Amino acid sequence: MTEPLDAVDIVIVGAGPVGMTLALALAGGPFGVLLIDSRQRGAWASDPRALALSYGTRQLLESLGAWNVNAGTAIETIHVSQRGGFGRTFIDAADYGIPALGYVLRYRDLAASLDASIEASQRLNDHEVIAIRLGSEAAEITLKGGGGDTRRISARLVVHAEGIPANDAGIRVFDYCQRAVVAEVRPRAAHARQAWERFTPDGPLALLPLGQDYALVFCVPPAQASRLLQLDEEHFLAALRTSFGGRVDFVSSGPRASFPLALRVRQQLSTPRQVWIGNAAQSLHPVSGQGFNLGLRDAWELAEMLRTRASRDAGQRAILAAYARRRRIDRSGSMAFTDGLVRVFSNDLAPLRAARGLSLLALDLLPPLRHFVARRMIWGARAWP
């Protein structure tokens, strides 16, 4: 059974944190907004993933009333080094007059904070988008519900925030030939809210403070990832100690999982009546924790563009094109930053090892250079706010 055609100004496909951030940023404005998600509401409640949010993202969420001050663990300092080579740098929040460089919190806690502020009338769960037909005045979205019913909705603008972009002609993909092994590990000594970014020939390794533990992200070739997943706890922790060169010791670890790493970029952010944000627009390597923060900035800037420049029609071609241009610097800068780190540091060539050491040494000895890198990590393209 197909229900009659309903009309709304903006449909957001995907009710994850990026989609919900956009909905909240548009709340109280001139546009009617509907969030559509294929999952049941609260499906994220059991999601154990850890997220690294920059201080700039905290400021964004605070402005929306969606920051849970008790949910995250602050990152006050970051120690950056490379295995098998000299050079290191140290980044301290105190140098920037802020309480933390970033925060680590669970996906479910962030989703709960955002979800609590969204009106029930703004959401439609357990419905999958099966077709989008574009017209000159609106897009028609056909949905299939969990009970098999179909529904049609007319929208001036369709915002895609549903996750990692699929393989199609508009997506550029670079496979890093790495997998991220993730787990929570307990350090022998308290972490004192310090994060570690350790570059190894196999790939970057990060320890992010989360409660009393560290959230581990260990990027390695696929065969090595399989071996790490199969190790017992004792040998897994021994492998971590070796990678950290004795700088950090561990006493226990939780369950391990892994996922493949690739740079996936949608080359065209907008088409008539449609725009892509967050992971639907770009999926980055997790090194330096840039991707998720970039996605939330996508949502914020799209909302700002629609609030200040759109009149009655949220899907005006000129506004969507202007949004895509406005995101170009932040987007390309974040992709170049993370991609460059992976390419330069994920090898064991002696000349590059020496060059990396000099680079880390320069960051440590030249505060303006270190401050630029730190500010980009905190605020994105607004590196000098």
From TrEMBL:
GO terms classed as biological process: ubiquinone biosynthetic process
Domain FAD-binding residues, every copy: 8-328
Signal peptide interval: none
Keywords of this entry: FAD, Flavoprotein, Membrane, Monooxygenase, Oxidoreductase, Transmembrane, Transmembrane helix
Single GO molecular function: 2-octaprenyl-6-methoxyphenol hydroxylase activity
Essential cofactor(s): FAD
Functional pathway: Cofactor biosynthesis; ubiquinone biosynthesis
Chain ranges passing through the membrane: 12-36
InterPro entries xrefs: FAD-bd (IPR002938), FAD/NAD-bd_sf (IPR036188), UbiH/COQ6 (IPR010971), UbiH/COQ6_monooxygenase (IPR051205)
Domain of life: Bacteria
Pfam families the UniProt entry points to: FAD_binding_3
Family designation: Belongs to the UbiH/COQ6 family.
NCBIfam families linked: Ubi-OHases (TIGR01988)
Protein name: 2-octaprenyl-6-methoxyphenol hydroxylase
